[in-house]
């Protein structure tokens, strides 16, 4: 794995956790609190924050797809995980594994254990 691919995976991992937590925060703090109390000023900022994080996640996912040449099924899985509340937490776990596997494979190629 080259440095650009590793960086792209790492950036996707960095955005996956906040994106995963922004959707439940929008549901809990925005929707529920606005219905049970007069606190409705949280809906717009939380909605904007979640929307921005989701767009950043989608752009970074496309960047990772272009650099890693993942199959479409894997990219679709990560996109679907972003649509589920807390799905990005599982996505982060998978990304961590892919990142570690890539580093191990790159070290093995560099040491001549595996020819690529």
Automatic annotation (TrEMBL):
Principal cellular location given in the protein's record: membrane
Membrane-crossing segments per the record: 12-33, 39-62, 74-91
Pfam families hit by this protein: DUF3817
Listed InterPro entries: DUF3817_TM (IPR023845)
Alphabetically ordered keywords of this record: Cell membrane, Membrane, Transmembrane, Transmembrane helix
Entry coiled-coil feature ranges: none
Membrane topology summary: Multi-pass membrane protein
Places the protein is found: Cell membrane
Signal peptide range in chain numbering: none
Residue ranges annotated for the DUF3817 domain, each copy included: 9-97
Protein name according to UniProt: DUF3817 domain-containing protein
């Amino acid at each position: 794995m080259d440095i650009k691919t590793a960086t792209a995976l790492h950036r996707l991992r960095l955005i996956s956790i906040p994106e995963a937590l922004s959707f439940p925060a929008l549901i809990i703090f925005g929707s529920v609190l606005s219905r049970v109390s007069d606190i409705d000023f949280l809906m717009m900022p939380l909605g904007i924050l979640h929307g921005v994080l989701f767009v950043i996640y989608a752009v970074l996912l496309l960047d990772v797809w272009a650099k890693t040449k993942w199959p479409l099924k894997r990219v679709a899985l990560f996109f679907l995980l972003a649509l589920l509340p807390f799905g990005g937490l599982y996505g982060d776990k998978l990304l961590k594994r892919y990142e570690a596997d890539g580093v191990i494979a790159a070290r093995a190629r560099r040491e001549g254990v595996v020819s690529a």
